[in-house]
Amino acid sequence: MSRPRATPGGALFWSGVVAGWGLITAGVAGGLANVTSVPHWLAWLAGALLVHDLVVAPFAAGLGGILRVAVPGWFRAYVQGALVFTAIVLAVALPVALRLGGDPRNSSELPVDAWGGVVVVVLESLLVWGLIRSLRALRRTLRSP
Amino acid sequence: MPGRLTRLRRFLFEPPEAFRLGPFREEAFPDPVHEPRNLERNAAVLGIALGVAFVVCFLTGVLSHLIQDPPGWFVWPSRPAGLYRITQGVHVATGIAAIPLLFAKLWTVYPRLWRWPPVESVAHLVERVSLVPLVGGALFMLATGLINIAQWYPFGFAFPGGHFWGAWITIGGLVVHVGAKWATTVAAIRRGPPPDTVTDGGLSRRRFLRLAFATSAAVTASTVGQTVRPLEGLAVLAPRRPSVGSQGLPVNRTAHSAGVRRTATDPSWRLRVEGAVRDPLSLSLADLHRLPQREAVLPIACVEGWSANARWRGVPVRDLLVLAGADADAEVTVESLQPEGAYRTSELNRLHAHDRDTLLALQVNGQPLNLDHGYPTRLVGPNRPGVMQTKWVTRLVVR
To answer: Would you put residue B151 in left (φ > 0), alpha (ψ -120 to 50) or beta?
Structure first.
């Protein structure tokens, strides 16, 4: 099978452009007319993109470069996997863990220790991963002649 | 003039090789996941998963918006009682599940941000420009949604409107992207996975993909217990747990933060039923207790994704409407003692107003309502967002 061209085209693409930009225009127009602080809204929209593309991703690329030099090849995948997993679980937990929201007088809010939760999630996942690896190794052993 | 145009076109679409620096270099991204065939395969798989996730989030989010701010043509039914609990639970859980997948997808295609030449044609330029609303919108939606469920509001704009209109921008970007990538995605899936070889260590293509989905499963499992009661014990990263709160039920807004502590405990409090009625009512708490009571097990389903069932007891709204002589298809505005706020009133359409289980509750889980749960009385009904289960009710305005 020949590879499709990287450059898009055709009826499907141009239909998508028309429909998609119609929705984007509706979203921007609706936001400009209805969002309570448009400059803040636009700053968050653009900021999310810029922070990812110019801070988070270059940081990940730089860290990857350091790992390529500092960690032996046979072990690198484990270090990369552990770092990626923990970083994303931390990112998801951060708003709750920092306790910056909510009402401190509300006894039902934030009832969990999210920092401890991150440790629990990482350890539980490590356990599940270890179990899966062990089961696979056992299956390979049983299948081998 | 044509010569200039040709030169300009060549400069834009075929810029000089000397400009190729830093991340624009050929070998700037040497990871196995960034090898062309690995990149295409993982981008296709992650793209499909994210496409499904964002469409689910978009549809459930728009539905929630319609329920809270209904146009004339939209009538949200009162049954099944737990439907909103499911749609909003799915909305938040899918958004959280999408976070690791989005990071994985963006990392997979990150080298393409620095591709050389940056654009190859007008169509390619349009496609790349369309990535700005898609990627910016997707990151914005997941980041603001995640921060909002922790009830943290650092945005500078009101979350509901910002999130809602951001969703239209994101889904528009997604529509363009689907049109642009349909052929390459189908081809990558049909080709099947390339051999998973790693020459120099590091995460292979398949391991990277598994890691992305495993992380997605882990963050979902550790938060979804805020609405799926059997998984409550696993909800170590969720902002709420269904059983934690006064009277065994979480509270979203306390009486103190609503500014109703004095007015809600004032002995002169009365419930007034007014508007399009034959006999306006003014009832004390004792009067309400003397009326026929009904019990119903109903969920409080918060827009922020947590939900919890409780056993409520109180006076059916439809009985009050009959007592006041309202029409059989009357609709009602429910007003709270809250002096201000977007949710100080809520609307009961004709289906909700006349449902047998739409109550002005006086008890929860066998105890008199406490202040934080809406004493002296609160609205609770089937299939309604938590923000529309108005607390500290003082007036029903019938239309």
So the answer is: left
User: DSSP characters for B225-269?
Assistant: GGTSGGGGGG-TT-S--TT-SGGGS--SS-HHHHT-HHHHT-TT-
Structure tokens given for B4: 């200039």
Percent of chain B with pLDDT over 70: 99
Q: With an 8 Å Cβ cutoff, is A16 touching chain B?
A: yes
Per-state percent for chain B, helix, strand, coil, to nearest 5 = 50, 15, 35
How far is it, in rounded angstroms, from Cα B87 to Cα B92? 9
Residues B38-49: tens digit of each pLDDT = 999 999 999 999
- The count of C-alpha atoms lying within 13 angstroms of the C-alpha of B202, restricted to the half-sphere facing its C-beta, is 21
Determine the 3-state secondary structure of B394 from DSSP.
strand
Element (H, E) at A121: helix A114-143
Contacts with B39 from chain A: Cβ below 8 Å: none
Interchain CB distance below 8 Å, A6 and B124: yes
A130 touches B at CB < 8 Å: no
> Rounded to an integer, what distance in angstroms lies between the CA atom of residue B366 and that of residue B380?
15
Q: For residue B181, what pLDDT is reported?
A: 96
Q: How far apart are the first and last CA of chain B?
A: 70
CA distance A21 to A33: 18
Query: A42 with B133: CB under 8 angstroms?
Result: no
pTM for the model: 0.94
**Size of the A and B interface in Cβ pairs below 8 Å:** 287
Cβ-Cβ contacts under 8 Å, B58 against chain A: none
What mean pLDDT comes out for the span B132-160? 96
